[in-house]
Structures are given as C-alpha cells and as structure tokens.
Amino acid sequence: MDLPIDHFRLLGVSPSADSEAILRALELRLDRCPDQGFTHEVLIQRAELLRLSADLLTDPPRRQAYETALLELSRDHPGETAGLDVSPSREVAGLILLFEANSSHEVFHLASKGLQPPQSPTLGSEREADLALLLALACRAAAAEEQEQRRYEAAASLLHDGIQLLQRMGKLSEECHKLENDLDALLPYRILDLLSRDLGDQVSHQEGLRLLDNFVSQRGGLEGTAPSPAPGGLDQSEFDNFFKQIRKFLTVQEQVDLFLRWQQAGSADAGFLGGLALAAVGFSCRKPERVQEARQHLERLQLDGCDPLPMLGCLDLLLGDVGRAQERFLRSTDPRVKDCLNSHPGDELAAFCEYCRSWLRGDVLPGYRDVDAEAVDLEAWFADRDVQAYVERLERSENRSSSLGKAFSGSSMKQPFPWAPLDPDGILPLSLGGPDVGQPAADQSFDEFASDGIAWIDRLADLPRPTRPVLIGSVVFAALIAAFAGFSLFGQRPRTSVSTTADQPQVTAPPTATLQEEVLMPQVPVSAVVEPLTLEQPNQAQLKGLLQAWLSNKAVVLAGGKSDALPEVARDPLVQRVAQERARDAALAQTQKVVASISSVEVVSRTPQRIELNAVVTYRDQRVDAAGKVVDQTPQKDLSVTYILGRDPDRWRLHEYISGK
Q: Which secondary structure element, helix H or strand E, spans residue 596, and what is its range?
C-alpha cells in the first residue's frame, strides 16, 4: 500500500526537528498507544513503523537523501503528496498512524476499499476486525470535519456509507449505532442546508422538503407527540426555533401542502398554520377562493385557548361579508379589537380595517419565501377584478345582498385620498405553480401583467358627501367604502365591453373606439419556431429573444392556438399554467388577444445556473367572446416584470416571473 504520508507527519514532528526532538516524539507516541480496541498484533506493527521512521530521520546521510527526494518530488510534481510504501502485513498499522495524523477522509476511503472485494480480508480475522473498527472511527471523524465546515450533506453521505458497510458486514453493532445517532442528530442541519441553497438547485430543495416532511412526521407533528425520543436531538423549544428559521426558505404553497398533510396525520398546530397559509396565498396572489377556503378551514378547527373570532372576522371582511365580520368582531374578547374600536369611536368599519391590516402584516404574511409581509394593500385587494367577481358570485350563492354599502354608511370621508402604489418597493410575490385546493382557481391571465384595476375610483368625485365629517382612520379603505356605498360594485358590475375612456353620462355623443375594432380575431393562431438557448453565457440580445419567445407563444395559446415551442422556453409548471388558463377561457367560450413585446432587458444577477432579469414590457390585451365581442380589455401600458431563468440542464428556460406593475 502506498500510504499518503511522509516520515515527518507519521511521527508528528516538524521537517526542521533535530534528532533529539525526533526521539522525544517517538517515545511520546509509543507511550500514547490507541485504546479504541485494536488487536495487540496491529499495535506492535504500529510501534515498528514509528521506530523505522525515527531511525531514518536520526541518520544524517539517510535523512539528507530522503529530504532531497522530497524536494525533487515537489519540484517535478507540484501539489502531489509524498507517500510511504508499506508492506501488506503492516497496512492496517499504517492506516492507524494516518488516522492519528488527522487524515480521516483518506483513512475512511482506504479502509472501505480494503474491506470490499477483491481486497476483503478473511471473515473473522483480526485484520477484518481492525479494519472495521478503523473504518467506523474514521467515518465519525470525517463526518465531524464536514459538519464543522457546514457541509452537512457531505457529512450525512459519509455516515450513510459507513453504516451500510458495517451493516453489510454484520460487525460492530455498537459503533454502527453511534453512526446512526450521529446521522440522526445531523438531520435538522441537513434540512436547513438543502432548503437554503440557490433556487435553481431544485433537486436539493425537493430533497430538503422530503426530509422535513419525514422529520415532522417521525416526531409526531409540530407538537412532538411521538412516544420515542425526538429525532434530530431537538426538544420542543429547540424545534420551534428551528422551524421558525426554516419557514423563510419555503414558499407559501409548499407550506400549505405540508401543513395540510401534517394536519391529516393528527397535528392540530399544523391545521391552524395551514389555515393562515391559505389566507396568505389567497391575499398575496389575489385569489379570493383561497381566502374562502381558509375561512372554511379555520371554522372547522377546535382552537383551545384561542379566540378565533377576530381572524374569522378579517376573512369575512376580505370576502365582502361585512355584516358577519361586524358580528364576529363585536363578540370577540380580544383586547386588540377593543383597542382598535377605542381608536376609532363611532366608526367601527375603520377599526375593523385597521385590525385586519395588522393581522395580515403580523400573523398571516410573514414567514414565506415568496410573500412580502409589508405589502398589505386592502385598496388593491378590493379593486382587483377577480376579487370583485368572486365576491359577487359568493353573495349570490349565499343569497345575501351586498352588505358593504349598508355597513359603511355610517363611515365618513373628509376628502378623496391618493392611491398608494401597489408595490412601492418593487417586490411582489412569485406566482405559485402548485395545485389549487378546493374551488377552481380564479382567472390567472393577469399574473404576469397585473392590472391596476382601479378605474372605478374616478367615480368617487360624483358621490354625495356625507353629512358627518369624521375622518376614517384607514386612508386606504375610505375610497373603497365610498365606491361600494355609491355603486354597489359587487352586485352591479357592468357586463359589457370595457371602454377605454372614463365613465361619462349617456348623452348624444359619438361612440368611442375600442380595441375590438382595432384587433380582430385571428383565424389560425400560429406559434413561432424557437431555437433552444444552449449557450452558457448568453448575451442580453439572446436573453431578450428568449423572453419574447415566451410572450409570443403564450399569446398564441391564449388566443386558442397551439404552441409546440412553449416547452422550449419555459418549465413545465409555467406551460401547464398557461394551458389551465386557456382551458378556463374555453369553458366560457372566450379567447384572449394579447400583444406584448420586450422593450428593454437588464441583467440583475447571474450565476452558472440562474439569471435574474428585469424587463420593461409593452402590453395590452382584450378578452373576446364567441361572437367576436370584446368583453374586457387592458389599454396599452409599460410594465416592469422580473424574470427568473434557470439552466435545465443544457439550455436556459424560464423558471418563474414576479408580477409586474
């Protein structure tokens, strides 16, 4: 065996050590014999190797020749390590000395090789026993070194290999149990390591999710009710801190899936958190059907020691059921609700809105990788067309008239207030590609190009002024109140084509042109041919071409055509999302006519596996029914959209986009 160590390291002395220092080191090493359980014969061979090295280094002519050989080796083969040729009878002793020189990785590799064919020793021999023990010791030491460097997956791989080899041999059950305990204690660190990696490394992320799911299931849910010792070596307090840290690396949809699965296994805490996650995905992605699902989910829970009325009242408010929200808030004993009511005497609605904002910002939206906890804009929520349409359908299905106007009639507005920007920091949550739960998802045609949806706010100027000038504490919701009170928006939304001009009294004025006259239905939508972007370092023009190919082929599908090129430029979840959107339109006998072009592209960040781009997109669209009549449209505007590209594995494709404004 060629042992990767020189005589100086084997003895543990400096290359400049004199003969006296070398002899002292020899005496010390002989006195400190390993006591882990090696056989007497291999310990004698260890002592012989130490003496041979000391004899060479204390003989001036032989030492000089050896040092000259070392210098020539370093000159002719820089970076290589000098080795010692050890006879087969002393190989195990040499590996013990290499292990004492802190070369645990090399020892683990060589011992593993020596225990397997064709080099495997005789069954039951002393050589087999010594090699197995040395493998176990080196495995633990090498894994500890990797853990110190925060390479937790590498440490786990070493421990897993060592356990498998010992189990296959049927040797050292006690040492094998130690390795299993080390692997078990490493689990929380592995999960954190895998989930915190770059978003482009989906293989590691999915493995982290799998380990997290198993970890929580084995410990008996988030509460840790399993009778056996908790895996990972964490008590409940340590686990709570760990889970709080891990959540920021998970998307809101990933957490919904995990929480609901753990609830089915009996975890009450997971059920509660699943309800909050449903509310978070509903509010952040403008999906009111998920808010309704959250309300139904939380109503079914038995929440001991917790007053559910305020959070249910907030969900009622988001779904336009102000009467039920008012009832829940007033029945609640939560002191925070009382404080909000005291802050707005005589104006209950403003108090409810203030509490709802605080609840969303503090309890619902924090803790997700793809949700901005500070982006709490109730104004934008109620101005969203999908929200308005869903609340209208919900009112009809529940046989209730809109209670917004009645409930808000006591509120007053001193003067119109300017609208706050939907996303002042330019950070909106990523669109989610996971499966929807419960009711069918709302129309996602505006995920990539979010519409302001607030043209009706211009009608506020025509509303009658209230007689009691009390300023509502919630500036954002004041405009919403007046709009609903004056026009019963949820119950009386117009069904005709959307005009590109502001609302005007119906007088004898010439008709206004619409996009319906400008863009006609294409007879056969045709997709463009797309060449895969395979270059490792594409330039801006090539990246712009990839994004334009995505927009053009997506438009073909939404117009009722077929695009074989879409999978070449986007991942399957995005392709499926477009197909689902088209299926919903087809069920309504409608098509979308989208005109979108990339005006400019800026590279925000770039790694070998991930590119983040900020693009300015010139965009307009219209929705057309089977008769060719425009039922909805968006006027032309410039939007800022962030795109995330990933390498899969030999080409660049679109992985996700962040909604523009």
A: strand 590-606
